[in-house]
Design goal:
By secondary structure, this protein is an alpha/beta fold. The protein has helices at about 50-60, 80-85, 95, 105-110, 120-135, 150-160, 180-195, 210-215, 230-235, 240-250, 255-260, and strands at about 1-15, 25-35, 40-45, 65-70, 75, 85-90, 170, 200-205, 215-220, 225-230, 300-305, 305-310. The chain binds adenosine-5'-triphosphate and magnesium ion.
Length: about 325
């Protein structure tokens, strides 16, 4: 069952002071489908639109075009309150995203206040349950964020995201700010919570090995578009798109000789989403581009059991 369906989503930012109506096409025609109890990993270079996608799903940025369905419900017809009960977000840097002047119990139960007035006692009780769920001791209820370690703060962020009992969590680089040993603990906590609560995750990361570990499906993004999208074992094990291959090659996580020997990205600048290249967006950096790639944009189509936008066969 699909818990989140995204169809031809576009999120454009206006360019301040620009009179020609130019826009930054941060998310530029993105479609995917998230199933119950599954994790979709989203990878791609800095600036490819991952956080913009996350913010659009949360309703923090408005979409320019396209559709978002939460289960059967069209996002155009739901209130902010309904949206937050369905989907919640965990941010990269817990210290940045947690109010430093609030105690742990207040932080965790803050989202409850969008519903109704909840008594302090009820809040403390709920916060204690959630702290236990995410592996924090309840002594911490009355502490402030700076009194927790980085990993513990991220657990607080997860507890807060769970307080409304959502179906979907968006995790935007949730472990990137943490030490490697702590990363593993948080990833395992997320896996545990997913199993217990039938959660679905959108897991955004630039760290391919983390995504390979946690994601059932992976979507590779480039300049706001999908390059390749399908089961993680195929994307990491038998990548099709030249961009996916160059990402895997530079991350040194593939044992495949084909990936190790694959040519590097062409040494040209990453184009701007303000003015993306003609044809295939990737052709200016693609080491195996053909002539047609600069003139025609490939459609996203099914090839070898995944979705790909590339003319190669
Ligand atoms: N509020 C904004 N106004 C205008 N442009 C923006 C805004 N936020 C992001 N952008 C631009 O949109 C594009 C996508 O940015 P986004 O933050 O979504 O990328 P990202 O994939 O999350 O990058 P990173 O890996 O660095 O977090 C970039 O070109 C960025 O400069
Ligand atoms: Mg980002």
């Amino acid at each position: 069952m699909s818990v989140l369906t995204v169809e031809h989503l576009k999120t454009y930012y206006p360019v301040i002071g620009n009179r020609d109506g130019d826009v930054v096409k941060a998310v530029n025609n993105l479609s995917f489908d998230l199933k119950e109890n599954q994790t979709l990993g989203i990878v791609g270079e800095s600036g490819c639109g991952k956080s913009t996608l996350a913010k659009t799903l949360m309703g923090l940025e408005s979409k320019t075009d396209g559709k978002i369905f939460f289960g059967e419900k069209d996002s155009d017809n739901i209130s902010a309150k309904e949206r937050y009960q369905y989907i919640q977000m965990v941010f990269q840097d817990p210290l940045d995203s947690l109010n430093p002047r609030k105690k742990a119990w207040e932080i965790i139960t803050d989202p409850l206040m969008i519903n109704k007035k909840v008594s302090k006692n009820e809040c403390i009780k709920k916060a204690a349950e959630l702290m236990e769920l995410v592996g924090l001791r309840s002594e911490g209820l009355h502490k402030y964020p700076h009194m927790f370690s980085g990993g513990q703060r991220q657990r607080l962020g997860i507890a807060r995201a769970l307080v409304l009992n959502p179906k979907v969590l968006i995790l935007d680089e949730p472990v990137s700010a943490l030490d490697v040993s702590i990363q593993a603990q948080i990833l395992n906590l997320l896996k545990d919570l997913q199993r217990k609560m039938k959660l679905s995750y959108i897991f955004i990361s630039h760290d391919l090995s983390v995504v390979n570990y946690i994601a059932d499906e992976t979507l590779v993004m480039y300049l706001g578009r999908v390059c390749e999208y399908g089961p993680s074992e195929l994307i990491f094990g038998k990548p099709f798109h030249p961009y996916t291959k160059t990402l895997l090659k530079s991350a040194h996580i593939s044992n495949s000789e084909e990936i190790k020997n694959f040519p590097k990205l062409l040494d040209t600048e990453l184009p701007s989403p303000l003015n993306p290249p003609s044809g295939c967006f990737f052709h200016t950096r693609c080491p195996v581009a053909k002539e047609e790639c600069s003139n025609f944009a490939p459609m996203l189509e099914e090839k070898k059991e995944r979705q790909v936008s590339c003319f190669l066969e």
